[in-house]
Amino acid sequence: MSIHEECGVFGVFAPKPIDVASYSYYGLYALQHRGQESCGIVVNDDGVFVSHKDLGLVSEVFRADTLSRLPKGSMAVAHVRYGTTGGTNRNNCQPIEVNHQKGRMALAHNGNLANAAELRNELELSGAIFHTTSDTETIAYIVTRERLKTNSIEDALSQAMNTLDGAYSLVLMSPQKLICARDPYGFRPLCYGKTPDGVYIVASESCAIKAVGGEVVRDVEPGEIIVFSSNGVESRREHCGEKDKKLCIFEYIYFARPDSNIDGVSVHEARFRAGQVLAKAHPVDADMVIGVPDSGLDAALGYSEASGIPYRIGLIKNKYIGRTFIAPGDRLDKVKIKLAALNDVVRGKRVIMIDDSIVRGTTSGRLVKLLRDAGAAEIHMRISSPPFLHPCYYGTDIDSEEHLIACKHTVEEIAQIIGADSLGYLPAESLCCLTGNGDYCSACFEGNYPTPIPSDTRKDRFEQRLSEKKDR
């Protein structure tokens, strides 16, 4: 089992009609690591919304002929999805589009609402009919409901934020405006930038802004709403400071691309520091340090520098294998298809292998065996995060303690299970070294949830309810 994050959002606002679909396409490519189940683009052509959404990778959903059918426009909203709430089907593809009495809206969402089940139940009892099993539709309903009572879409979003609880980074498009917002905790990243020709870009990560030739202006602050329109850029801060900042620490450990900066902190540097901390917390005599591609590489460099043990490339990743890879039965080890050990490098050597996390332990065991088969004399595994002990309710795909190996076994027992000579995790008290501050959420490691635990904690809670209704 691998850890996945829910999705990535992207938005474009141009002073005149341009090929915003191409901007969105390249932006989604840069954010592909955040979601590989589905993707979509909605273009605003003078108030007319034209969209294309489907299951698959960006390169599969948007081919040359598909992009050519999307018109030029002054705005666009785009999305890549990995679903932690709701299943994998076309109805759950984003951005979500809404027609209402006062106009149209397109919405892309990254995160997970802690109170989604309660809000959805309330809406259904009031007559709302849902077409998806994603909590993003719940956000769209609440914003639309508020829009019917307010003078502007940004007022409606501000009112909706009084109701929403949990993680949400949003990009929202009306016929005249592009709006982005980040929840008051700042669980998920969001930033905006500008290209030399005056095009504004909103994205989950700074790497997507740079991918389309833009320069990052700044991160969206927790609780902030930013409005892009013909009147310029307006920041609304009525929700700023409502909560203590709680950015997901796993953004730095695994989710984000290493060339991104989040809230002023380099992702690469954060991972490098994690490796340095690991070297001091769990030293061991060895001949080399290797990293598990890709998220273990930066931490491996940090471990190598702090320990003085040489860094080597011991595992090679097949860059053409993605999440869409289909294994023909269980006869072949998927790890061997995706990764290969360099036998001549590791044979007869004492190896320190750095990875970002252990969930069930299955993948870690296969990695250790891969190195054993290549002739490694010793394998010491080091993990650049603390042990997973608790589920996440804010968009990370960790939903059951019964599936977490660290909830059932000691570190020494886990080392035996995966076949490693030793195992060491990043100490939870050292997480602050990654960011230089304590403004992060580490509930999946320490159980210190910033919000009340949801009454319905199933990741598929909406699909389950639909199934229960059909069975009656």
What does this entry look like structurally?
This protein folds into two domains: 240 residues, Aminohydrolase, N-terminal nucleophile (Ntn) domain (Glutamine Phosphoribosylpyrophosphate, subunit 1, domain 1), CATH 3.60.20.10; 177 residues, Rossmann fold, CATH 3.40.50. It contains 17 helices and 23 strands. The C terminus is likely disordered. The two termini are 34 Å apart. It has 472 residues and is of the alpha+beta class. Helix 5 packs across helix 6. The relative contact order is 0.12. The longest helix is centred in the middle third of the chain and has 15 residues. The radius of gyration is 23 Å and the shape is globular. The strands form six sheets. It has a seven-stranded antiparallel beta sheet. It has a six-stranded antiparallel beta sheet with strand order 5-6-7-8-12-13, covered by helices on one side.
Short description:
The protein is α+β, with helices and mostly antiparallel strands. The protein has two domains: 240 residues, Glutamine Phosphoribosylpyrophosphate, subunit 1, domain 1 (4-Layer Sandwich); 177 residues, Rossmann fold (3-Layer(aba) Sandwich), CATH 3.40.50. The chain is built from 17 helices and 23 strands.
